[in-house]
Structures are given as C-alpha cells and as structure tokens.
Amino acid sequence: MVTVRVPAKVNVQLGVGGVRPDGYHDLANVFFAVALGDEVTATPGDGVTLTCTGPDADAVPLDDTNLAARAARLLAAHHGLPAPGVYLHIAKAIPVAGGMAGGSADGAAALLACDALWGLDTPLDTLLELAAELGSDVPFALLGGVALGRGRGEILEALPVSGTFHWVFAVADGGLSTPAVFRECDRLREESGTGATIEDVPTPDADPELLAALADGDPVALAAALSNDLQAAAVSLRPSLADTLRAGTEAGALAALVSGSGPTCAFLAKDADSAAHIAAALRASGTCRTAHATHGPVPGAQVVSAPRP
Ligand code: C5P
C-alpha cells in the first residue's frame, strides 16, 4: 500500500492572455501550494477502481473521467504494462471544482502512488511530461512550493520564496466549470471591445513586485500585488462571490481574491492568529459553506507511507 499526500494551489497571479487557436489561453500563472490537501492511497487491485471519502465526496466522479484513474492508465500505458491493476482511494479535503486544482492534485498523487506501488522508478521529468498530458495544473501538484507556469500553465519554473504565508479559503456551495470561466473571460473582453484572441491581448508576464514579495516573505507586499484575470469572470457567473470577498476583507484580511477559476475565495492574513479569526468570521457570515485557515508554501505530492517490506 502507498499513500501520497498532495497540496491544493492558489494562484497568487493569474495573468490570462488571448485565446489560442487550440482553445487554450497563454498564462503567466504563479502557483502557490498550500497545506490544505488530499491523500491518495494505492493498493494492488484488478483493473483501475476508485473510491472517495470527504465532505464533497458525492461530487467526485468515480469513473474513468477522474484524473486519478486517467493517471494510473497513462502511467501503465507509458511503461507498456498490459493490464494496470490498482485500487485508488482518495481522502478528499480540497474543494471539488473549486479553483484549487483538486482534481489535478489527485491525478499527480495517483501518478506518484502507482509509480511506487508498481516499482517503476519513473524519472521526475517523465512524470512531469505525463502530468502535462493529464491537465494544465497537474505538473505543479507534483512540484509544489511556488512556481511560475507559462504556456497553458504546464511549463514550470520554481520561484524563490521566504518564510510562511497564512491563508484562509472560503468554500462555496457548488463548483464552477473552468472552461466556462475562461469562456466568460473571453466574452467580457469581447464585450468591452478589447477582443479576446492572442492578436488582441498581450502575452502576460510575471509581476516583478509579486516575485519580490514572495522572495522577501512579505505578506503586506504580496497582498498589494495579488491579481487574478479570471476574477471578473468568476464573479460575473457567481455574483454572490463579491459578498464573500467583502466579508473576509471586513474580518481583517490583507487581501481577498478568487482562487483560480473559483468559486473558492482566498484571503491572505498577516499571521496564523489572524487567519483563524478570519476563518471563523467567514463561517459565521453566511457568505460561504465553510472556511479553512491554512498556510504555505508546502512541497508537492509526496509518498507518506511506502509498501511494507
Ligand atoms: O488543461 P485542463 O484540462 O485542466 O484545462 C481545462 C480547461 O480550462 C480547458 O479545456 C480550457 O477550456 C481551459 N483552459 C484554458 N487555458 C489554459 C488552461 C485551461 O483555456 N491555460
């Protein structure tokens, strides 16, 4: 049996370029891994089977569309294994369809868990390539820490960071579809007259002030530099997110933003005590289903228990 722990992410910068001919958007995507995470356990089994527990387990598909199942099959195919055999169990804490890359995290965790279970010893570079085939956010879940993602988010460069930052995540009722939020971003750009294609929108780049705030471990400077080009689209599709963002700010957050494509909202706090206070205030505010105080950065997917000898 192999258990892998894997972090959720928040995007401290999500710069979205124009829509490309392949339908994706070029990004300047600064990923930040937080301690809120899932655990995926792999046990020998027949075929690829999946179970899931946790508060949102009912919303998790257990068929071959689940990124954990796809990861197991992709790794087996890469190594020419005739019939992959694994039973995967996901202990889910990351909000489902919440803009925190929870499905991607499970895909990354399953790659690592199956690699250990099947004794394949796949090099990290190869795992990262397989991860990129599974989805734009999957490679970062393997890497963790803080990283700049270019291209559609899969071309990663680790970034220097000092200290620990304290975060609160407000979980909404129900998810948002990532493609729908990107489409809404395009629609809002068309509507405002700027256009939405790569000819219309300059290729985004990482914000130097944001990178300096991360390197300095300065939460006040990071709060001033946080940005998410998908935020207007997420709020347009779910206007009640404006109330959630306001409630966290009123409770003392240094900054509030939508996490990735949402609808989870992220709040940067000045320290752990402040984060606990903001989480309690958000839970009491009636503007979200629940709220979690956590911290980061933390490492990417890691084996926490190896097969018994
Ligand atoms: O890569 P992944 O399958 O996670 O992406 C999900 C969807 O999000 C894509 O089908 C696309 O609609 C949108 N997306 C995008 N540009 C990106 C990443 C994702 O438009 N860079």
TrEMBL record:
Active site: K9, D137
UniProt keyword Nucleotide-binding, yes or no: yes
Top EC class of this enzyme: transferase
Cited Gene3D superfamilies: 3.30.230.10, GHMP kinase, C-terminal domain (3.30.70.890)
NCBIfam families: ispE, PRK03188.1
Function, in words: Catalyzes the phosphorylation of the position 2 hydroxy group of 4-diphosphocytidyl-2C-methyl-D-erythritol.
Protein name: 4-diphosphocytidyl-2-C-methyl-D-erythritol kinase
High-level lineage: Bacteria, Bacillati, Actinomycetota, Actinomycetes, Kitasatosporales
